[in-house]
Amino acid sequence: MSVSAALRRPWLNSIRWRLLAWLVGLLVLGALAVGGVGYRSVLAETEALFDYQLRQMALSLRDQGEIGPAQAQALRNEELDFVVQIWTADGRSLYASRPHPTLPDRAVLGLADVSVDGETWRTYGVATGLRVIQVAQPRRIRRALAADAALRSVAPMLALAPLLALAMAGLASMTLRPLARVARDLRGRDEHTLAPLPEAGLPDELAPLVQALNQLLARLGRALDGQRAFVADAAHELRSPLTALTLQLAAVARAGDEPARRSALADLAAGIERSTHLVEQLLALARQEPGAVPAPDAPLDLAALAGEVLAQAVPQALARGATLDLQADAAVPLRGDAAALRLLLRNLVDNALRHGAPGGHVEVRVEADPAGGARLVVDDDGPGLPPAERTRVFDRFYRPAGTQAEGSGLGLAIVRGIAERHRARVVLDTAPRGGLRAEVRFPPAEGGAPTAEASGG
């Protein structure tokens, strides 16, 4: 059925109407089954009762020469159409209690069905030494009376059926009332109303749905709070470099001679470079936010990526007098987003160069995990990071107290976002030379949930 047809008949999509249709259908089937069984039972009982009356009349005439009061009353009832016939032993008809155009012309001992000119009679015959007595009744009379009795037995059920259907409709509406209440509550909300839905008094079947909705509302609230905090922090962080750029531009305009002008232009270029780096970091962090569309994963070599990033970092290392060392397996296969992992490596190496000792040593190690996945380690020989700070440095724009090196405070937040995107874990620890070790552990293809860890060692 098409969607337009379903929209024209909304009851097809209504749980209430579906439930009511099933309940009424089951009621009708049950009523038919009970009515059918009752009908057949009443028919059989009525047939047995009529047969009993035939037998009692015949036996009373044989044994007592008269019919008892109960049978006499039935015999006088024209609707029952009982007929008593008596024959001599040699077959001459002596008596018929009621004239009838198609009476049986012979007696059959016991119960029997006798057809006369298309009319079927139910008879019971007994014999004495001198005569034969038979009591008969038309089959059509028995069938009509039995059917009438059977219909009267199921009539109360048929009369109650509409009332039961109305009761079921009310029961369906009452049962679905909590669901309607939840829907009404949701319709009354807007983008600013993310408070949890009330869970008190909910049926067991509806409670998991409301709990899931509350969890979704909580995640949405956290995401919106994070987005608002990100925008506020970004605006705050951009204000300072933009103010500095304005001052540096003014210094260029005030420069009185060529050396002062060149110095002001150099400061302006450095300020533009810092601002550009900050904007790039903000854009990279935004790409890791929940809801951003990730790039498709593809096979890659993590060792080759590390080599590319270290080659690009050589000018920065030379400027600080630092040395870079790469220790990697011949190939470390991984599946992921090459551009994002390249940014992760660049941020870790940049962090190690900025916070390492001047003229120090930065070591990058990439190796395949025998159990599957890969392991990336970046060590520096700087002052390191106190264990108490190793969790907070993953927060956006956070810079530990006393930090002298320039930076945006976004590098490790970006690293964590990219690692989570690849189901990897980021662990901060103490490097063998006393500096900071940043280790990223990539799981096998079907790895577990991502986390960021801070080791106390």
From TrEMBL:
<keyword id="KW-0547">Nucleotide-binding</keyword>
<feature type="domain" description="HAMP">
    <location>
        <begin position="173"/>
        <end position="225"/>
    </location>
</feature>
<keyword id="KW-0472">Membrane</keyword>
<dbReference type="GO" id="GO:0005886">
    <property type="term" value="C:plasma membrane"/>
</dbReference>
<keyword id="KW-1133">Transmembrane helix</keyword>
<keyword id="KW-0418">Kinase</keyword>
<keyword id="KW-0067">ATP-binding</keyword>
<dbReference type="Pfam" id="PF08521">
    <property type="entry name" value="2CSK_N"/>
</dbReference>
<dbReference type="Pfam" id="PF00512">
    <property type="entry name" value="HisKA"/>
</dbReference>
<feature type="domain" description="Histidine kinase">
    <location>
        <begin position="233"/>
        <end position="446"/>
    </location>
</feature>
<protein>
    <recommendedName>
        <fullName>histidine kinase</fullName>
        <ecNumber>2.7.13.3</ecNumber>
    </recommendedName>
</protein>
<dbReference type="InterPro" id="IPR003660">
    <property type="entry name" value="HAMP_dom"/>
</dbReference>
<dbReference type="InterPro" id="IPR013727">
    <property type="entry name" value="2CSK_N"/>
</dbReference>
<dbReference type="InterPro" id="IPR050428">
    <property type="entry name" value="TCS_sensor_his_kinase"/>
</dbReference>
<dbReference type="InterPro" id="IPR005467">
    <property type="entry name" value="His_kinase_dom"/>
</dbReference>
<keyword id="KW-0597">Phosphoprotein</keyword>
<dbReference type="InterPro" id="IPR036097">
    <property type="entry name" value="HisK_dim/P_sf"/>
</dbReference>
<keyword id="KW-0808">Transferase</keyword>
<dbReference type="InterPro" id="IPR003594">
    <property type="entry name" value="HATPase_dom"/>
</dbReference>
<dbReference type="Pfam" id="PF02518">
    <property type="entry name" value="HATPase_c"/>
</dbReference>
<dbReference type="InterPro" id="IPR036890">
    <property type="entry name" value="HATPase_C_sf"/>
</dbReference>
<keyword id="KW-0812">Transmembrane</keyword>
<dbReference type="GO" id="GO:0000155">
    <property type="term" value="F:phosphorelay sensor kinase activity"/>
</dbReference>
<feature type="transmembrane region" description="Helical">
    <location>
        <begin position="157"/>
        <end position="179"/>
    </location>
</feature>
<keyword id="KW-0902">Two-component regulatory system</keyword>
<dbReference type="InterPro" id="IPR004358">
    <property type="entry name" value="Sig_transdc_His_kin-like_C"/>
</dbReference>
<dbReference type="InterPro" id="IPR003661">
    <property type="entry name" value="HisK_dim/P_dom"/>
</dbReference>
<dbReference type="GO" id="GO:0005524">
    <property type="term" value="F:ATP binding"/>
</dbReference>
